[in-house]
Amino acid sequence: MFDVKEALVAVLARAKPLPARLVTLSDVLGLILAEDIAADMDLPPFAKALVDGYAVRASELVGSSPKLAIGEEIVAGKTPTRPLAIGEAASIMTGAPIPPEADAVVMVEKTRRDGAFVIFEESRVAPGQNVLPRAKEMKEGEVVLTSGTWLNSARLGLLASVGRCQVLVHPRPKVAIVTTGDELVEPSEKPGPGQIRNSNATLLHALAINEGAEVEVLPNAVDEMEILRGTLARALEFDVVLITGGVSAGNRDLVPAALEALGVERVFHKIRLKPGKPLWFGVGAERPAGCPGPLVFGLPGNPVSGVVGFLLFVRCALARLSAREPQSAWMISGRLTKPFRHRGDRPTYHPSRLLEANDPALIRIEPLEWAGSADLRTVARADGFAIFPEGDRDYTTDEIVGFLPLD
Amino acid sequence: MFDVKEALVAVLARAKPLPARLVTLSDVLGLILAEDIAADMDLPPFAKALVDGYAVRASELVGSSPKLAIGEEIVAGKTPTRPLAIGEAASIMTGAPIPPEADAVVMVEKTRRDGAFVIFEESRVAPGQNVLPRAKEMKEGEVVLTSGTWLNSARLGLLASVGRCQVLVHPRPKVAIVTTGDELVEPSEKPGPGQIRNSNATLLHALAINEGAEVEVLPNAVDEMEILRGTLARALEFDVVLITGGVSAGNRDLVPAALEALGVERVFHKIRLKPGKPLWFGVGAERPAGCPGPLVFGLPGNPVSGVVGFLLFVRCALARLSAREPQSAWMISGRLTKPFRHRGDRPTYHPSRLLEANDPALIRIEPLEWAGSADLRTVARADGFAIFPEGDRDYTTDEIVGFLPLD
Hints:
2 copies of one chain form a homodimer.
Chain A: E1 2-3, H1 4-13, E2 21-24, E3 32-33, E4 37-38, E5 48-49, E6 53-56, E7 67-74, E8 88-92, E9 104-107, E10 111-114, E11 117-120, E12 131-132, E13 143-145, H2 153-161, E14 166-170, E15 174-179, E16 184-185, E17 196-197, H3 200-210, E18 214-217, H4 225-235, E19 240-244, H5 255-261, E20 265-269, E21 271-272, E22 280-283, E23 295-299, H6 303-321, E24 332-336, E25 340-342, E26 348-355, E27 364-367, H7 376-380, E28 384-388, E29 393-395, E30 400-405
Parallel strand pairs in A: 1-21, 7-8, 15-18, 15-19, 16-17, 19-23, 24-27
Antiparallel strand pairs in A: 2-14, 3-14, 4-13, 5-12, 6-8, 6-9, 7-11, 10-11, 20-22, 22-23, 24-30, 25-29, 26-27, 26-28, 28-30
Helix pairs in contact in A: 1-6, 3-6, 4-5
């Protein structure tokens, strides 16, 4: 049986960045660029005013309160019709091109108007003041963003300014969620005897949305082979398939059999982990148009097992498909606020709260009272999971343990 | 003229959480709950098996390799038809109700089958083992989530399990973006003489989406009073209006006049801040159905001024409308990696990169070479803005300055 790290290595070995695709600019926030982006023109395309005011020859502003004739008015979107004459200042708006012969702009707040003239409060103006020279931001042909860049808001603005309305990116992974189980009813229904509401679909949908995936919840598949196979066949058209239930050792757990019948190659089944041991992982056949085979996760049906399986494995796989670096789940650690008794031969992920500490380096972890893998309510009060390695041990207050954050 | 803190106080004084509204469960991730949520039934509604295996009386498993007759098979979604007989074990699946008289479940992996009998590898089984008692997770009527809770994935799962398909939340703020300027062309067009592409719409759209807003970009409004008023009138139906351009001191800057004519009450215009000084802020009239008046931000047209204005003021306003606590922009500080010469009577927000440090308490800040408020390219290379207070000063390497993060 794999341990958590072996299982993660096996998952990541099969998770490659999705083939790059042209996506509309308004939908690429948070994605990874898959091409170099070059400027298609000089920016700014002309020397432009950075403030509202008067375009001048800096050398003409000498003495106290220098005064110039007001020439052309240059508004944004228009070009000057003639060079600046000697003894003249052009009224200019932010963003407008400065006229030939002008070399500086004086802010309107530092001037006052006197009929057809303008009087300047400051007489020492440096050439270039309040002017953005042509091509100062970028030159035509220059690469301004390189392949592999994470697209944040400023980079989207930059793409717009070089005229890219579509860019080549690693697209959002498409995730199908398939819940199984005859005992499940929709959240809108009142469960009858022996039934419970389906919380897994909502939970996994939210977890996958948080990772930037496009998510579709397929209808709950009852524990009948034909229905299950039909639903799973549809799910295998997605990049990632998340199935809950039907993977533990009970004799009616049909999911592994259905998946293997559909050509999904099993990579592992069961991990040394609590909760979440029955996790099943495999890879489907390559899809049309060179799309890689879907990554198929059979998560246990108990919701907390599903959360832990998602956080440890699915989250990293989605990051890799998106060409992002998977965040290591073992980076965070902190000190226990109280003793904890651990029993068992599997590492345990126990719902816990983080308590504020004055020193950010000293995170404090409070394990919560918890009724086990079906008890989602406790996880809803938690910030994540304290990690207790396998083996019986009585932990004391202030001992340092690892922590897997939830959101 | 307000300084940054005075302006932020003025904005937050007018930003109240939006009135609570019923929203569908699949769309409330990241929002703040506006009601207490009670369980509508006991959960689990029956004592249930936590593993696949055999439901037993714990007291009957004594001696080495105890053996019991296999009774009823209880699958998930079905209820037991009779109590467990003496000397009997019921085959049971994870999630199924345990039969009356049974008090523990033994994992199938710790048993082996022998015809109509099952033989147990372990003979010391505690009552309650692998059983989740009825109502252990929650009791009918008990409050499981309180008003004011931030809805993460686990809490969405919990809402589904108590049957709440719609919940009362503070909804996502609706944001209208209005760009102004005769010089702007769409990113898909090639700018003619004196023109530049509109990058502000893309930039502000992404910034507002990052804060969880619903965003609509209205058509660019040219600098003509009638067109501008029409567009702004439509924008005032939203919770927040972001206008770029048209607010500096130039005589064709019509935005403040148009807003005031539309009944938007000006709160301030201009802030002691660089870049971003011309920022205009006001509040529109109350809207139908008790919706508060829209918050109207007139941001400067230079893209970097708009980014800084958004990060300092709009981001905090959107958080408050969503009933989230606005994050203070002054929390982060770090040491300069090189000297920096600051000149000017306004605090300056200078695009900078964060460099990794071994000690997370020692963030290192590298100010980037920057051509001013129209130079978005440099911001696209930055992680945020180093903050230099007003006044002329030559900063030295390792001096500590504040930092405003970008994303």
